## 1
Amino acid sequence: MKLTADYHTHTIFSDGKNTALENALAAEQAGLETIAVTEHGYSHHFRGLKRRETEAWLAMIEDARAGSKIEVLRGMESNIRGISGLCDFTEKDFENFDVYLAGIHIVIRYENFRDRKLGWGGWMRRSLHLKPSERFVRDTTRAYLNAIEKNPLDIITHLNFQCFADVKEVAKCCRDYGTYLEISSKKQHFTDEELAEAAATGVRFVINSDAHSADRVGDAALAAEQIARVGIPLGQIDNIEGRKPTFRFAEFKKHL
Ligand SMILES: [Zn+2]
Ligand SMILES: [Zn+2]
C-alpha cells in the first residue's frame, strides 16, 4: 500500500515542530504527491492558528510551494464547537483555504457552556475508563452529523479520540454528504469492530499521519496494520495507489 497524499499535518503555527517547507520536503522524500498543512482551528485556545497569524501562515505555505516539488494545500483541522455542528470557518475564511477538516478537541471555545461536555466529557470518561451513557453518545453523534450537514467538510479527523460517537451513524452521514472518514496513523481510535462497521456503510476513507513533526509525514504504518487486520478493501481508500480524493469544499467553493 502506497500513500499518495497526506492530508493532516501540523507545523509550528499550531503544535507541530517543523515548518511547512520541512514537512513538504519530508513528504517529497517519502514519495508523496501532495500534503495538506492543517493547523488546529481558530477556536483552539492555545494550539490553534490565530486569525491575525493567517497572513504569515499563508506566506509559510508559499515558501513550501516554492521550495518543494509537491503540491502543498492550505488546510485547517477545524474544531466542532457544539452539538449544533458549528465549526471554525466563517465564509470570509474560505478563500484562504483549500481543504476543510474537522474534529472534536478539548481546550477550545465551545459554542455554549453545555457543549464543553463534547470534548471534556469524553476526555474524562476515556481517562477514567468510564462507559458513556446512551445520551452522551447520542449528543456527540448529533454534533458530528450536524457538522457534516452544515459545513462542506472534506475529512472527519480521528473520530472517537477524546469522545464517544456512534461510528456507524457518522460513517453513513459522511457517505451521504461526500465527507471522508480519516483512518489515523498516529493512534488507533477505532476498534476493529467499529472500523468494519464503518466500512460496511460504503463510506470513503483517507489515511492520514496527523504528523506533528516532519519525520512522521506520510507515515501510514499503524493504519495499514489495522486495515489489513480488519480486511478493509483498499479500493475504499482514496489517497493510496496513485488515487486522489474528490473533495467537497473545493466543489462547494466553485458554486459560491
Ligand atoms: Zn486533532
Ligand atoms: Zn491534528
Note: The chain has a mean pLDDT of 97.
## 2
Amino acid sequence: MSAMLSAARVWWMPPDGALHGIAIDRLMWWNLVALGLLFVAAHVLLFAAMVHRKKAHAQPRSSLRKEWIGLAGLTLMYAWMAISAQRLWATIRYQGAAPGALQVEVTGEQFQWYFRYPGADGVFGNTRPDLISAPAGNPLGLDRTDPRGNDDIVSSALVLPVGREVDLGIRSIDVIHGFFIPGMRLKQNAVPGMEMHIHFTPIVAGDYSILCSQVCGLGHARMQAHLRVVPAGEYAAWHASHEPQHTSGAAP
Ligand SMILES: [Cu+2]
C-alpha cells in the first residue's frame, strides 16, 4: 500500500534540486511500481489458488511450468533492481568530483553544522584539535599562523552557486553525525577521524533543509542548517562580503 501511494507521488520526498537526484527519483519510482504490482499480483494469485485449489491438483504439469515462469520473472526483476541500483550508485559515488568543483568542508559538532570555504587562494588552511574553541570564535580549530587559512570563511549556512559542481569534505569533531539534505538526495555519515567526500551539482535555486540523520545526543533534533542555492553572481557577492576569520583573541 505504501509502495503504491509513494509511486503515485502522494507520499514522496521534497522536490529534487540536484542533477543526480533525477536518476535517483526515477529508479525509486520504478522500484516502487514494480513492488506495488508484485504485491497486487501475489494477492490475486493467493486468492486464485484458494478458489481453484482442486483444479490445480488435477493439472500438476502445467502448474509446475507456471511456477517456473513466475520464478524466472521474479529472478529477472530482482536482478534488474540490484544491477540498476548498483550502477546508479557507482556513477554517483565511485567517481570523484571534477577538478574544477567548488570545495567546501562540512564539520558536524554536537549540535551544529559548520561550513568552511577556502578564500581567494582556493586552499584550506591547517586546523589543529588543540585550537578548537567555540567560545573564542574558533569552533573548527583554524590555525591562524598558517597563511593559507587566513582567508578561509566559516559559515553556519551552506551557500552554493546554481549549476556548479560541489565537492563536500565531511568531517565530525565529536561523535558520528549524518549529513542529510533531502532536497539534494544527499546523505553521508560524518565520522570522527575521517573525511568523506561527496559531490553533487545543485540545479534548482532555492532554500533546502540540512538535517542530521544520526541520533547524536540530546540536541540531535535541533541539529539543522540551511542550504541556499543562489545564482553565481549572488554567490560571488556573498563570498566576497564574508569577513575572513581573523579573531585576534583566539590566536595561539
Ligand atoms: Cu548530529
Note: The mean pLDDT is 87.
